[in-house]
């Protein structure tokens, strides 16, 4: 239960914790009251502003189609970016300069360009050089932009994960006569991915949120963009932002919870690998605990 | 082809990117401090602080930055009257944008530092405790200095993302790169060319940052 | 052992998502070919501008731009159910025409010299002016009253640039990302006025939830000639659209559309503009 960093709380510390908690809850209640009062004073609590969300039209016309597009684009981008990121990450560790250098350039380049502009260029690319239909093109462009950027970031995560593994792993693999390819595929990559899972999950959360960039210029109707249309109709920008923020929080919470469940399954037999926090404490604190890894989460927009 | 660029003086192209740099620098520093405090909270002995840190990270990280930035203006400033001591909307927008960027980026900094803390071998903390250091001494003198050195790479990722994220500040009228880009697109009807100019600007800003911090992370890596 | 689990999980996830997306893809391509098969016309409009182009809660579209587009499409030989309205964001209008994503664009699209280099315009079909929207009890009547006052507009819009450069350089300008947010700021007293084209302002003032709360100041701070965007070089369509617009005006359908969409806001519209005459 307790961490290596401090003792289990004694009677005095326990008492102090209780006092602190009471004070904190009181402050929190005060804040909630202040927020409620201020919103009431500015007329933001009027039922007319919130009522649309209890009606089916607001959901069936605006929010649900937007949510469906967000989910579709995010799922596609994840499925493509994950393996691509692994490939680039491994390529950057290659012994051959001719593989290592181009991979490094691709990663550094696509990490540097704003995703919004990547989507804009991808949209133009699909129009000029492919025959993707007009209806399909926005989602192609959005997914392409997301894949290029996030695969680059994931590549860095995978690379960091492989480098962080103890040298003994690859030495032992060599000693039993595995080839480089086999070592990477069967020994290093599985361990690196498991160790990096929290960071990878952070990046997946970023993918979900960055689908919103598709609505800024190239007319991809996702959740945040649909909110704009909704707010223009009902004249309720603040309530609509609140509702949409809650939807995003729930969506990403499901994603992180699923990932932490997956992580625990994959990690079962290796509890507390040199981590300062003990495993069960991390479990208790945070569904998507960052454990023994390089959390990156290049939280992106534009 | 590029002559329209000289029509823009308020802000000019360089002025807009300078604003991007200012936003990045100030909110980078701010989120480093706030993120470190959050990370300290998340490993602290007080359950309340751990709970707060966890809740903060999980909520803030899951909201799109656009929503957070617009909330600072529509919510904080308009409804709650938090104007940060500025009645001029330009100044107010800048300060609110920094507040939003710091609040958001700190969640990512916190997670990066926490992973750094996890890479410090257990023995270090045990030894510190054995010689009688308190929790805050252990954290300040032993754990964090080592943790920072091992997460320069991931922090560089966060900084690069932050540089590009400053563009969201345009949503509340801060005159940085994306703000100028919107004005140019509105007037010039040349979306692709303008997009390319700004993409190039961001590559110029972020590539050196990435390369320098990559080099720094190798230099400062803790040899174990 | 562990490896097998990882790869099994990954494979399962991959298969699942591929089947899921494959299904989605099928559905989409069906609907795609369906719409491509019949002769339909695609018209770009705004989705979020009450009175001009708005996607209603029941999924239909309303507004002056929409009415004009529907009339023009009818003259071109398309019934209302053969029109596909597509959302065209401001940044994407020229490219959407150049790519052929849409045949026409009627989306508060002011005719300017820069734009004319990229697209052709039919019309103009409406002469709008930059104006102010203020609370009903406000004492702002002139542009110079704005100096020292709080004013709201949308980031990157020409109206914001005009305020700044020309008529009220000392106004404290708050820039939001959408007009709905500006209205919200105006309503809760953060700003004293909102500026953009009077047609757009009238659309908001006419909305049910704002009725009686705001008024237009009636200033003519700029001239905005709304045209219908057509792909560069497509003179045939431009001529057809112009003929349709002329007919719309002469048959009084134009006046009806103005009254329907802007009427409730007490909007004093300009008479229908002459085709090809751009008021500078």
TrEMBL record, chain A:
Subcellular localization(s) per the UniProt record: Cell membrane
Name this protein carries in UniProt: Amino acid ABC transporter permease
ABC transmembrane type-1 domain location: 67-255
Gene3D superfamilies from the UniProt entry: MetI-like
UniProt xrefs under CDD domains: TM_PBP2
Family note: Belongs to the binding-protein-dependent transport system permease family.
Topology of this chain in the membrane: Multi-pass membrane protein
Segments passing through the bilayer: 18-36, 73-91, 103-122, 142-165, 186-208, 238-262
Natural source organism: Streptomyces lanatus
NCBIfam families in the record: HEQRo_perm_3TM
Main location class: membrane
Domain of life where this protein originates: Bacteria
UniProt keywords, alphabetically: Cell membrane, Membrane, Transmembrane, Transmembrane helix, Transport
Pfam families the UniProt entry points to: BPD_transp_1
Species lineage: Bacteria, Bacillati, Actinomycetota, Actinomycetes, Kitasatosporales
UniProtKB/TrEMBL annotation, chain B:
Ranges where the ABC transmembrane type-1 domain occurs: 17-213
Keywords recorded for this protein, A-Z: Amino-acid transport, Cell membrane, Membrane, Transmembrane, Transmembrane helix, Transport
Spans through the membrane: 16-41, 62-82, 94-113, 158-180, 192-216
Entry keyword Cell membrane: yes
Pfam families membership: BPD_transp_1
Chief place where the protein resides: membrane
Membrane topology qualifier: Multi-pass membrane protein
UniProt cross-references to Gene3D superfamilies, sorted A to Z: MetI-like (1.10.3720.10)
Subcellular location: Cell membrane
Keyword rRNA-binding annotated: no
Alphabetical list of PANTHER family matching this protein: AMINO-ACID ABC TRANSPORTER PERMEASE PROTEIN YHDX-RELATED (PTHR30614:SF37), MEMBRANE COMPONENT OF AMINO ACID ABC TRANSPORTER (PTHR30614)
Family: Belongs to the binding-protein-dependent transport system permease family. HisMQ subfamily.
Designated name of the protein: Amino acid ABC transporter permease
Automatic annotation (TrEMBL), chain C:
Domain Solute-binding protein family 3/N-terminal: 40-265
Pfam families assigned to the protein according to its UniProt record, in alphabetical order: SBP_bac_3 (PF00497)
Stretches that traverse the bilayer: none
Keyword entries, A-Z: Signal, Transport
Matching InterPro entries: Bact_solute-bind_prot3, SBP_3_CS, Solute-binding_3/MltF_N
Leader peptide range in chain numbering: 1-22
Keyword Transport on entry: yes
Coiled-coil positions: none
SMART domains per UniProt: PBPb
Family assignment from sequence similarity: Belongs to the bacterial solute-binding protein 3 family.
Protein name as it appears in the record: Glutamate ABC transporter substrate-binding protein
């Amino acid at each position: 239960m307790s961490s290596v960093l401090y003792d289990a709380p004694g009677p005095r510390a326990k008492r102090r914790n209780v006092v602190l908690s009471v004070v904190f809850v009181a402050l929190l209640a005060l804040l909630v009251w202040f927020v409620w009062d201020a919103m009431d004073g500015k007329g933001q609590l009027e039922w007319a502003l919130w009522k649309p969300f209890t009606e089916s039209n607001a959901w069936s016309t605006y929010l649900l189609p937007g949510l469906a597009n967000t989910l579709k684009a995010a799922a596609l981008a994840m499925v493509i970016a994950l393996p691509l990121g692994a490939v680039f990450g491994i390529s950057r560790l290659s012994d051959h300069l001719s593989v290592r250098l181009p991979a490094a350039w691709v990663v550094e380049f696509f990490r540097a360009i704003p995703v919004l502009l990547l989507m804009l260029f991808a949209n133009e690319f699909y129009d000029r050089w492919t025959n993707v239909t007009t209806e399909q093109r926005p989602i192609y462009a959005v997914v392409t932009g997301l894949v290029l950027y996030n695969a680059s970031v994931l590549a860095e995560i995978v690379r960091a994960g492989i480098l962080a593994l103890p040298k003994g792993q690859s030495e032992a693999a060599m000693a039993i006569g595995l080839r480089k390819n086999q070592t990477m595929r069967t020994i290093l990559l599985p361990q690196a991915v498991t160790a990096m899972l929290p960071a990878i999950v952070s990046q997946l959360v970023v993918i979900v949120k960055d689908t919103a960039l598709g609505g800024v210029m190239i007319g991809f109707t996702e959740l945040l963009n649909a909110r704009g249309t909704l707010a223009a109709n009902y004249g309720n920008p603040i309530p609509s932002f609140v509702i949409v923020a809650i939807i995003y929080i729930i969506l990403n919470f499901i994603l992180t919870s699923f990932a932490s469940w997956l992580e625990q399954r994959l990690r079962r037999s290796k509890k507390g690998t040199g981590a300062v926090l003990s495993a069960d404490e991390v479990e208790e604190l945070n569904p998507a605990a960052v454990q023994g890894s390089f959390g990156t989460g290049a939280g992106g927009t534009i | 082809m590029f002559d329209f660029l000289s029509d823009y003086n308020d802000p000019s192209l360089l002025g807009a990117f300078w604003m991007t740099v200012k936003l990045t620098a100030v909110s980078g520093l701010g989120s480093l401090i706030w993120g470190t405090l959050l990370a300290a909270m998340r490993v602290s002995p007080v359950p309340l602080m751990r709970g707060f840190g966890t809740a903060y990270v999980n909520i803030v990280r899951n909201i799109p930055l656009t929503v957070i930035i617009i909330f600072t203006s529509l919510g904080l400033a308009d409804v709650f009257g938090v104007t940060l001591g500025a009645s001029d909307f330009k100044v107010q927008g800048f300060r609110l944008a920094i507040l939003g960027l710091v609040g958001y980026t700190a969640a990512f900094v916190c997670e990066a530092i926490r992973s750094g803390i996890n890479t410090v071998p257990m023995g270090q903390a045990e030894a510190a405790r054995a010689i009688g250091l308190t929790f805050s001494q252990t954290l300040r003198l032993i754990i964090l200095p080592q943790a920072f050195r091992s997460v320069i790479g991931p922090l560089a990722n966060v900084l690069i993302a932050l540089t590009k994220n400053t563009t969201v500040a345009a949503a509340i009228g801060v005159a940085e790169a994306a703000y100028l880009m919107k004005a140019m697109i509105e007037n010039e009807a040349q979306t692709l060319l303008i997009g390319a100019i700004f993409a190039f600007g961001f590559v110029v800003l972020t590539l050196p940052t990435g390369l320098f911090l990559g080099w720094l992370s190798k230099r400062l890596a803790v040899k174990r | 052992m562990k490896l097998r689990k990882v790869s099994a999980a990954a494979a399962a996830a991959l298969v699942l998502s591929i089947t899921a997306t494959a299904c989605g893809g099928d559905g989409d391509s069906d609907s795609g070919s369906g719409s491509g098969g019949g002769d339909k016309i695609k018209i770009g409009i705004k989705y979020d501008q009450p009175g001009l182009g708005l996607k209603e809660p029941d999924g239909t579209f309303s507004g002056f731009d929409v009415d004009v587009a529907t009339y023009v499409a009818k003259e071109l030989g398309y019934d209302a159910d053969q029109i596909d309205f597509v959302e065209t964001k401001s940044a994407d209008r020229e490219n959407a025409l150049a790519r052929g994503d849409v045949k026409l664009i009627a989306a508060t699209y002011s005719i300017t010299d820069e734009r004319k280099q990229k697209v052709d315009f039919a019309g103009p079909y409406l002469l709008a002016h930059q104006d102010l929207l203020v609370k009903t009890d406000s004492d702002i009547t002139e542009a110079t009253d704005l100096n020292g006052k709080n004013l709201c507009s949308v980031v990157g819009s020409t109206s914001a640039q005009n305020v700044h450069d020309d008529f009220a350089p000392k106004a404290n300008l708050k820039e939001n990302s959408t007009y709905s947010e500006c209205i919200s700021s105006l309503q809760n007293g953060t700003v004293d006025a909102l500026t953009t084209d009077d047609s757009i302002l009238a659309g908001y003032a006419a909305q049910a939830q704002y009725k009686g709360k705001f008024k237009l100041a009636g200033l003519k701070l700029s001239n905005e000639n709304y045209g219908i965007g057509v792909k560069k070089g497509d003179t045939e369509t431009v001529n057809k659209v112009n003929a349709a617009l002329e007919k719309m005006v002469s048959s009084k359908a134009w006046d009806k559309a103005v009254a329907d969409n802007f009427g409730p806001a007490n909007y004093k519209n300009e008479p229908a503009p002459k085709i090809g005459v751009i008021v500078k």
